[in-house]
Amino acid sequence: MAIIKMKNNTSNAKDVTTAGKVITCKAAVAWGPGQPLVVEEILVDPPQKMEVRIKIHFTSVCHTDLGAWQGKNEAQRVYPRILGHEASGVVESVGEGVEDMKVGDHVVPIFNGECGDCVFCKSKSSNLCKKFRVDPLKSVMTNDGKTRFWTKQGEPIYHFLNTSTFSEYTVVDSACVVKIDPNAPLKTMTLLSCGVTTGLGAAWNTANVHAGSTVAVFGLGAVGLAAVEGARSRGASRIIGIDINSEKLARAETMGVTDIINPLELKKPVHEEIREISDGGVDFSFECAGNLDVLREAFLSTHEGWGLTVLLGIHTTPKTLPLHPMELFTGRRIIGSVFGDFKGKTQLPLFAKQCMHGAVKLDEFITHELPFSEINQAFQLLMDGKSLRCVLHL
């Protein structure tokens, strides 16, 4: 039975048993594309079979949240909705059948789940899952096709990316919840839900960057700098960072980038500059901007014969790849990476321990911290290119 410390109106703590009950809490609700998020009281149902209800302690804002909030993809325009997919917290209660977690466990929700039983989960060649893979169009729970969030007037509020972390409490499929070491700092573990894991995993798992290799990273936000960190930790000899934001370029130099390029200051295509300074092209490039023109530059910046481009940016337009099929006969390759090719429940706990022991400098990715009530300011910081990750305290 869950015992959660909650505060009453006189600020005196009291024990309230919440397991099996509907919880009233604060959440940031998106009511329409581009409209300011409204922090308001909502109702959160108890977890059903194979579900977990989590008390969120920290959450952060990612570009994927930003794009969904702006309504860039019309197919994702489902309202009202609770966005958010980077977070950390503590298990408040579990539904029937959940055996790998219990009340009080420290956890990280993940948007790309792992059931452990399907053909995808059993394959060593994929980190996707037949039932719980990332799906931006999904807005209800897998178990019964219903929501677990409600307005106080009884209207449904829809889910986002299997997680919906912009809420003091959220209900998540157990396949999308990872138990971590209770000694791990929850604030920094928040970053493992998406950004850092995605970028660093792309360097470690997807590309398998090796000592002495050369790398170009296009787009130096949190995902891009995580790819930089992954390449640096693997011993890459040269890491070229490309961005049009001078502040991001300056920050990148402190985080392992050896060369910086601002395309706005060049009189020739970026790929030509990269080929000149890297003896014909880099071994690996990472596209983290979600821009088709940038993707083409990333592809052409790699070396003929073996160059690999890893696609990480989210492309919301219906436009197709800007490549002629014959260009693939040069030996260059291109591949997409979801969640850094980490199997969430299987591999993330070990990655979290590696981070605890200093394998990744997580603190450097947190540029701002705000109370949850100022979530709209966190969105503005990201839009203005001022923040890597703004962590919100709930």
Helix content: 10-25%
Euclidean distance between termini CA atoms: 23 Å
CATH architecture of the largest domain: Alpha-Beta Complex
Count of structural domains: 2
Instruction: Please give the count of helices.
Output: 10
- Gyration radius, rounded: 21 Å
Mean pLDDT: 94
From the spread of the alpha carbons, the general shape counts as globular
Structural class: alpha/beta
Q: What's the β-strand tally?
A: 19
Major β-sheet annotation: 7 strands, mixed
Strand content: 15-25%
Task: Write down the CATH class of the largest domain.
Answer: Alpha Beta
Low-confidence stretches: 1-15
Word description of this protein:
This protein is an alpha/beta fold. It has two domains: 3-193 and 361-393, Quinone Oxidoreductase, Chain A, domain 1 (Alpha-Beta Complex); 199-337, Rossmann fold, CATH 3.40.50. Helices cover 22% and strands 24% of the residues. The strands form four sheets. Strands 5, 6, 7, 10, 11, 18 and 19 form a seven-stranded mixed sheet that branches. α8 links the parallel β15 (284-287) and β16 (308-311). α4 (195-206) packs parallel to α5. The chain is globular and about 65 Å long. It starts with a strand and ends with a strand. The model is unreliable at 1-15 (pLDDT under 50). One of its GO terms (biological process) is formaldehyde catabolic process.
Concise account of the structure shown:
Belongs to the zinc-containing alcohol dehydrogenase family. Class-III subfamily. The protein is 22% helix and 24% strand.
Name the features.
Quinone Oxidoreductase, Chain A, domain 1; alpha/beta; 19 strands; 10 helices; 2 domains; zinc ion binding; 394 residues; globular; 7-stranded mixed beta sheet
